[in-house]
Write a structure and sequence with these properties.
Length: 227
Amino acid sequence: MTAGKTDDGAKKEAYVTAENVSSFSDAGSTQAGSIHGNSYVKRQPLLLHSCCGPCSTACIERLLSDWDITVFYYNPNITDKEEYELRKSEQIRFIREYSRKNLLGERINFVEGKYDPAEYYSAVSGHEGDREGGKRCELCFRLRLTAAAAEAKKLGIDTFGTTLTVSPYKNYDIITMIGTELAVANGLSWLDRDFKKKAGYQRSIEMSKEYGLYRQHFCGCEFSKQD
Ligand code: SF4
C-alpha cells in the first residue's frame, strides 16, 4: 500500500463542486457513492488493467463510486487469438451493456493494448513448464502491469490497478508488490485492492451470469490449458 491510493484515500479525494453543493446536500452525502452518471461528484480517473470481462464485472461495480475508469485490455498471454478476441468482445459488450443499464454515459472507456503473444513468450522464457501460480505467472503479471503503467502515463492517468486480484487463483501479494514497484518507478499511484475480498469473486460470477458473459475455464496461456 506504500505507493498506492487506498479505497479510503480515493474516497477522500471525491469532492463536491461549487455548482452542485445544493443538489449534493439535498440528496444526502450517500449520493457520493452512487454508480449512476451524476455530475455532482468529481471522480478521479483510473486506468484499470483487465484480464477479461467476467473478472472486470465486480471490480468495476465496486470502483465506480469513486473513479472514472479506463479499462485497459492488454493480454498477450492469451496465446490463442480466437480466445483473445472472444474475451475482448465480451469485455466490450459488458462495458456497453452495464453502462447503458446504469446510465453511466461515458464513465467507462475501453482501450486495447498491443496483441503480440511473442511478448508473452519472451517474458516467460525458461518458465514454460512452471506450475500455475509460480514464477511464470509472476513474469506474466509483470509484463501486463508494466504495459498498464506505461499506458496510464501515456494517457495522463495518475492511478492504475488491475482486475487480476479478483481471482482466487492469482497471488495478491505478488501482484501488489509488482504494482507498487511500477508505481514508484513511473511516478504513479497503485490502486491496492484485493478484489476477491468481501465475496468479490462470487459477485463476479453472479454478474457474469446476469450479463450472459462467456467465462473461460483456463487462465489464458497455452500452458494453463494443461494445468
Ligand atoms: S497461467 Fe495465467 S497468469 Fe500464469 S502465465 Fe499463464 S496466462 Fe499468465
